[in-house]
Amino acid sequence: MNEAVYLAAAAVLLLLGLLASKISTRFGVPALLLFLGVGMLAGSEGLGGIEFDDFELAQSVSVVALAFILYAGGLDTQWSEVRSLLGPGLSLAGLGTLLTAGIVGVAAAWILDLPILPALLFGAIVSSTDAAAVFSILRSRSVGLKGQLRPLLELESGTNDPMAVFLTIAVLDLITEPGTGAGELLLLFVTQMSVGAIIGYAVGRGSVFAINRIHLGYEGLYPVGLIVTVLLAYSATDLLGGSGFLAVYVAGLAMGRSPFLHKKSLMRFADGLAWLMQIALFLVLGLLVFPSHLAPVAGRALAVAAVLIFVARPLAVGILLGPTRFDWRQTALVSWVGLRGAVPIVLATFPLVRGIPEASLIFNVVFFIVLASVLFQGTTIPWVARRLRVDAPVGRRDPYPARIVEAGEQGVDLQEIVVPAGSPAAGHQIVDLGLPEEALVVLVTRAEGFVVPQGSTVILAGDKVRVLGNAQARRQARIVLTGGR
Prior knowledge:
Layout: H1 3-27, H2 31-42, H3 55-76, H4 79-82, H5 86-111, H6 116-125, H7 131-140, E1 144-145, H8 149-176, H9 182-213, H10 222-239, H11 244-256, H12 263-288, H13 291-294, H14 298-321, H15 328-336, H16 342-354, H17 359-387, E2 391-392, E3 413-418, E4 440-446, E5 449-451, E6 464-469, H18 471-482
Antiparallel strand pairs: 1-2, 3-6, 4-5, 4-6
Helix pairs in contact: 1-2, 1-7, 1-12, 2-12, 3-10, 3-11, 3-12, 3-16, 5-6, 5-8, 5-14, 6-8, 7-17, 8-11, 8-16, 9-10, 9-11, 10-11, 14-15, 14-17, 16-17
């Protein structure tokens, strides 16, 4: 088979993935389910007949894809919204994931007739949630969530994947290396989380600094820098023994809260790259599955799924959100949207690579549970949100890269500010000035003519800077540009 055939096959699969996303938007069917379906149809037991059973390659592809998906999630997360939710969000991601894994593990030992350690391994594998799938479903049905539910779910989903990975690796170590002690596992946890958070933040802040200081000759090179950020954050952290998944999420979060050149276009690039990675990830995972292996485990898998959906997740969420400001309706919604997505299937390849005797059973049951969760929970989330009265209209996304306003709207007006000699703003790029987000620099006038401002434009003494914004934004901009004069 030559390269052209491989390229044609890849093009057809990606095209089918794009069509599946269109069907998802049109009919409200979860895209994850359709992507997996395309992969299964293309597999050895499907119409495509593609033979693919390389679990190590699938795991490597999946890890890279998840790194870019988590980075894009962190980049798109609004720090101002999640900052006040660090307590409940991180408790759900940490203790919530641990409680879910434990409850499901105990149930799996009985239902699947597994020894206790492989059963706990199974619980760890299915313990993380996929909020990205939830939000794509809500958008397709034009349903939003009231209050702080959305940022809470975003924070939980972005930070519980590293916890699920840690639990999976920890239990695998206990199975393959019986002498592993509690102290070693505690050290592993502290190392993974602390190194992941520190390296991720350092890489994110360093990337912002580099983008704003290193002026590349072509705008098309900046997306390459974004790819470097993800690869560097994950690889450096992994080499130092930390959680690469946590690092890429924190790097995205650190960059998202900071101004940098071409931010809007780079965020759109990251979003498109994340979609490409999701399609590739689900297609590869779908290729791994043999549909004939799912039927024999269907009954037991449904029983475990019922424990996960109706017992483990509600108990964990109820215990952790009970003392918080979230009422019972919001708590119930958070419990219901604990959708299982790509991460459990990716983690289910770990036992296969390690050669655990129960690995095939675990993989098939996990895959069936993800399908059941997406099909059952995913299709009912909008209905449940409406029944609990926590739904809200989806905010309209502005199609333009900057908000266009009419002069006089809500006090918005245009003001010319002269930068005096000795101003601290002189000699600095616009992106570094710390101007309020509501203030838009629309034109800079100099003795030699006009300058159309960009983030990299350096402000000089004597410049006449025209700022569009409301009264408060204009006052703050004047203070910044004049040094308070």
